[in-house]
């Protein structure tokens, strides 16, 4: 009888201990936060090419300044100071995002007979390289603005002299006012800045090809 009582007491104690541990664990569990993801969104520049050049181009993956080489949505707070939005991120690295949009825009403009990405092994006469210097929110103005700055280099591989291979190298710096200081406001403003930048780039490439026609 005493043995049965001790077994019952031990079983009760173990059940109570397990219930206490489970309740304690559940009590410390925090609800998972949701990470919002953003990307640029703008229409491709309207095509204004009368005749497609019988040449091909490859768009290399752009390089990016270390301060913006991540999916963090960067906010410039002032000189020497940067911050990020805690629960919002770019869907992909800005280098991949801008490379993809430029490739899309050049393709739809119809400047070249064919366009290739850096994934392709096809040999192309022209190569476009880019370096992203700025891709962030700035406190300037009210409520703020988006800053976008990219340095592009267009290379003509048909030239033997390395210096003559550079068709042009230009810095494109564009900004756009934000409707409000938020991840959505930053994504919308950077999309507007990228639309202007891309249109200018496509126009410059087209003009360069017209100038080198027959070479």
CATH class of the largest domain: Alpha Beta
Q: Outline, from the CA principal axes?
A: elongated
The total of beta strands comes to: 9
Order of helices and strands: HEEEEEHEEEHEH
CATH-assigned fold name of the largest domain: Rossmann fold
The number of distinct structural domains comes to 2
Radius of gyration: 27 Å
Poorly predicted parts = none
- Which structural class should the secondary elements be placed in? alpha/beta
Tally of alpha and pi helices: 4
- Supply the CATH superfamily name of the largest domain: ABC-type transport auxiliary lipoprotein component
Sheet with most strands: 6 strands, mixed
Mean pLDDT: 87
CATH architecture of the largest domain: 3-Layer(aba) Sandwich
Tell me the β content. 25-35%
Ends apart, CA distance between termini = 107 Å
Please give the share of residues in helix.
25-40%
Provide a descriptive summary of the structure in words.
The protein has 215 residues and is an alpha/beta fold. It folds into two domains: 1-30; 36-211, Rossmann fold (3-Layer(aba) Sandwich), CATH 3.40.50. The protein is built from four helices and nine strands, in the order αβββββαβββαβα. Strands 2, 3, 6, 7, 8 and 9 form a six-stranded mixed β-sheet that branches. α2 crosses α4 (183-211). The protein is elongated, with a radius of gyration of 27 Å. The model has no long low-confidence stretch (mean pLDDT 87).
């Amino acid at each position: 009888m005493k043995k049965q009582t001790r077994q019952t007491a031990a079983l009760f104690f173990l059940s109570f201990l397990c219930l206490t541990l489970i309740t304690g664990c559940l009590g410390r569990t925090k609800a998972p936060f949701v990470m919002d993801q953003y990307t640029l969104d703008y229409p491709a520049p309207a095509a204004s090419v009368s005749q497609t050049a019988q040449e091909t181009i490859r768009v290399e993956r752009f390089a990016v300044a270390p301060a913006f080489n991540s999916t963090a949505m960067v906010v410039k707070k002032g000189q020497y100071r940067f911050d990020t939005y805690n629960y919002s991120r770019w869907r992909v690295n800005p280098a991949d995002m801008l490379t993809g949009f430029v490739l899309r825009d050049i393709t739809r403009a119809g400047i070249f007979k064919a366009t290739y990405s850096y994934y392709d092994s096809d040999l192309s006469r022209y190569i476009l390289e880019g370096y992203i210097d700025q891709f962030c929110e700035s406190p300037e103005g009210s409520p703020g603005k988006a800053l976008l700055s990219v340095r592009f280099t267009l290379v003509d591989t048909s030239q033997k002299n390395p210096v003559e291979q550079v068709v042009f190298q230009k810095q494109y710096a564009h900004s756009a006012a934000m409707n409000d200081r938020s991840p959505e406001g930053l994504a919308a403003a950077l999309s507007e800045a990228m639309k202007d930048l891309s249109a200018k780039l496509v126009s410059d490439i087209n003009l360069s090809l017209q100038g080198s026609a027959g070479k």
